[in-house]
Design goal:
Elements: E1 6-10, H1 15-26, E2 30-35, H2 38-48, E3 53-56, H3 62-76, E4 81-84, H4 100-125, E5 137-142, H5 155-175, E6 180-187, H6 193-200, H7 206-212, H8 221-232, E7 243-246
Parallel strand pairs: 1-2, 1-4, 2-3, 4-5, 5-6, 6-7
Helix pairs in contact: 1-8, 3-4, 4-5
The protein binds NADP nicotinamide-adenine-dinucleotide phosphate.
Length: 266
């Protein structure tokens, strides 16, 4: 490959997506930032430098996804990485009160969105030359601790995030011989607007989460972004179909919370 590799990050205007765009740009990638908020995505891209680009794209809209991926190839010439990060929080209500349209929307953003984006990007990646290890491109999906454990009142989010891991394995298996790696990270709670909205609504208790997390705190967005950037990079050239928890030990804990002891303040 001549020149810098090119990555698309969805939901890139805020939170983990924005941290990932910054991390990839820092690592030498050209980044195309996709977001519902195209103006903010463009502003973010400009902040990263003139070679980057920002685009309005609703990942659930098949026509928009096709058009914007075509635009990125026209602008940047190739696509080497895709980070399917766009996501929304769940309605967080007892099952009997859950709204069907809200349920459908959570599944659409996380699953239909990752599927549509991957379909378009894989079509492009398979036309590109292989690197020294035989790889053509990498996709990183975003799971969650909700991929593994149930959270009462969050049916759609848990189903969507478990589904993300299923799709990761299916795509990884299908495309490995064509040189496309597909992996997922599974973050614990991360300090972003999405989590702030859950705290504000009383849907989650930030201190209770810290107590339940072996490392005693939430993650900063850049701590997730670093792992996403690793999985997208040639450093992960023989990893595909993997799920990497980045959760401060949340899924490792198999004992009552009290076994962790107090959170040290110093
Ligand atoms: P965030 O701060 O709310 O950022 C999500 C971004 O995605 C926003 O810019 C949002 O745009 C955009 N977006 C939403 N729907 C979209 C769509 N249909 N098409 C394109 N962009 C869309 O969220 P975050 O906390 O960074 O979460 C990012 C990902 O990590 C999500 O998949 C989430 O499920 C996952 N995750 C988060 C945590 C956590 O604790 N934060 C933990 C595990 C996994 P608008 O702001 O305009 O709506």
């Amino acid at each position: 490959m001549n020149g810098a590799p090119v990555a698309i990050v969805t939901g890139a205007a805020e939170g983990i997506g924005w941290a990932t765009a910054q991390q990839l740009a820092h690592a030498g990638w050209i980044v195309a930032l996709f977001d519902l908020n195209g103006a903010l995505a463009t502003e973010r891209a400009q902040a990263l430098g003139a070679q980057h680009s920002g685009w309005a794209c609703d990942v659930t809209d098949a026509d928009a996804v096709q058009a914007r991926v075509t635009d990125v190839v026209a602008r940047h010439g190739r696509i080497d990485g895709l980070v399917n990060n766009a996501g929304i929080a769940d309605q967080t209500a007892p099952t009997l009160q859950q709204d069907i349209a809200a349920f459908d929307k959570v599944l659409a953003v996380h699953l239909r969105g990752a599927f549509l984006m991957s379909q378009q990007v894989i079509a492009q990646m398979t036309q590109q030359a292989r690197d020294a290890h035989g790889n053509r491109g990498a996709i990183v999906n975003i799971g969650s601790i909700a991929s593994f454990g149930g959270i009462p009142g969050r049916n759609a989010y848990c189903a969507a995030k478990a589904g993300v891991l299923g799709m990761t394995r299916a795509l990884a298996s299908e495309w490995a011989r064509r040189g496309i790696r597909v992996n997922a990270v599974a973050p614990g709670y991360v300090k972003t607007a999405l989590v702030a909205s859950l705290v504000e609504r009383g849907a989650i208790d930030a201190q209770a989460i810290a107590r339940r997390t072996p490392m005693g705190r939430m993650a900063a967005p850049e701590e997730i972004a670093q792992v996403i950037a690793f999985l997208a990079s040639p450093l992960a050239s023989y990893i595909t179909g993997a799920v990497l928890p980045v959760d401060g030990g949340w899924t490792a804990l198999g004992a009552p919370e009290a076994a962790l002891g107090p959170i040290e303040e110093d």
